Amino acid sequence: MSDSTCTACGAPPADRYVVSMHGEATCVQHPTRGQCALCARPRHTGESGWSRFTSATVRCPTCAGQAVDTQEEARLHIPAVRTGMAALGIELDQRVRVTLVEPDAINTDVVSLCLGRTLQRTWADRATTDVLGIEIARGLTTTHFGATVAHEIGHAWLAQRGARNLSPPLEEGVCELFSGAWLKRQRTEFASTLRRVSLESPDPVYGAGYRMVRDSVVSHGVAAVLDSVCRRGCLP
Q1: How do the pLDDT tens digits run along the chain, 236 residues long?
Q2: What is the 3-state secondary structure (H, E, C) of the chain?
Q3: Contact, 169 vs 205, CB < 8 A?
Q4: C-beta of residue 61 within 8 angstroms of C-beta of residue 75
Q5: Which among 149, 171, 186, 182 has a CA at the least distance from the CA of 225?
Q6: CB atoms within 10 A of CB 166
Q7: Are 82 and 75 in contact (CB under 8 A)?
Q8: Are 197 and 21 in contact (CB under 8 A)?
Q9: CA 41, CA 21: separation in Å to the nearest integer?
């Protein structure tokens, strides 16, 4: 636990408490109303410094303090993400623009929180897909931002290699694998926690897909897995 005092009362946490992804503790006896959309820190009644994320969610002061809020800030971080992905052997044939958008713009009619999306155009008479751009929710922490860009680069990479009509668990699992590999290279406690939470997610598409693809990589190696996905649309 990185913070030895409770976020609500400022005293050392006693008995039962919850710990956010940043390692911040909150005693369970304090009344709360919701939690941070990004790190799951409980929001206790009367606490200041919280801000709106989407129309239905909020962001804690710690996540807000690490936020990528402007396109200029995004431009500072994107090269490092691309370099990190290139070191993993994942490079796009054509550069794709990354744009910050309001979180509500990409969270319409969805059950789970969406942090990014890749815009694509398919052609009936061509095997390839045009990647039109990547949109990332404004206000993510730098770690969430990098992991989300890495995930969306995965979608763009698959599209540029003609990997079409993949099952959602397979495609999202590959992209979560890329995101997890990027997080592993960050060597911070927060990045490690985010990677673990993603891997343990009960989501039947993202979490289950990530575990399915990772297990296949353990058995066959990443090169064989990606080759099989791109050539045959399935795991080896």
Answers
A1: 445 799 988 899 878 899 999 999 999 988 888 999 999 999 988 888 999 999 999 999 999 999 999 999 999 999 999 999 999 999 999 999 999 999 999 998 767 899 999 999 887 777 678 999 999 999 999 999 999 999 999 999 999 999 989 999 999 999 999 999 999 999 999 999 999 999 999 999 999 999 999 999 999 999 999 999 999 999 99
A2: CCCCCECCCCCCCCCCEEECCCCCEEECCCCEEEEECCCCCEEECCCCCCEECCCCCEECHHHHHCEECCHHHHHHHHHHHHHHHHHCCCCCCCCCCEEEECHHHHCCCCCCCCCEEEEEEECCCCCCEEEEEEEEECCEEHHHHHHHHHHHHHHHHHHHCCCCCCCHHHHHHHHHHHHHHHHHHHCCHHHHHHHHHHHCCCCCCHHHHHHHHHHHHHHHCHHHHHHHHHHHCCCC
A3: yes
A4: no
A5: 171
A6: 17
A7: no
A8: yes
A9: 7
Amino acid at 26: T
* Whole-prediction pTM: 0.94
Structure tokens at 33: 């109303």
* Structure-block tokens of residue 224: 């064989």
Q: Tokens standing for 74?
A: 């995004």
Spatial separation of the C-alpha atoms in residues 3 and 24, rounded to whole Å: 5
Which tokens belong to 168?
């959602």
